[in-house]
Amino acid sequence: MLDSYYFSGLIGTIFLEVWKRRNATLAYEWDVDTFEDTEPDRPQFFGTDTRPVSKVFNLIVIYFTRITHGFIKVLKVLSSTVKNKKNFSY
Known about the structure:
Blueprint (H helix, E strand, L loop, with lengths): L1 H28 L5 H4 L27 H22 L3
């Protein structure tokens, strides 16, 4: 059983190191390894608001990713347990 854990850890580590090496190689070849350091700010860029609007209610629709949705659920559970502990007496 422990052998499979070690094997999974080894494969994960090898994959991560190969990924980082490939990322560094491509950044060097494309000459973007210092892009954030040398790129000037663009104050003329304001961005755009591309949030979808509901056709039924004419409201802005907010989408959450699965990770964000799960994080919100965890926060709700934690806040409810904190509320319950305030009412609990020993």
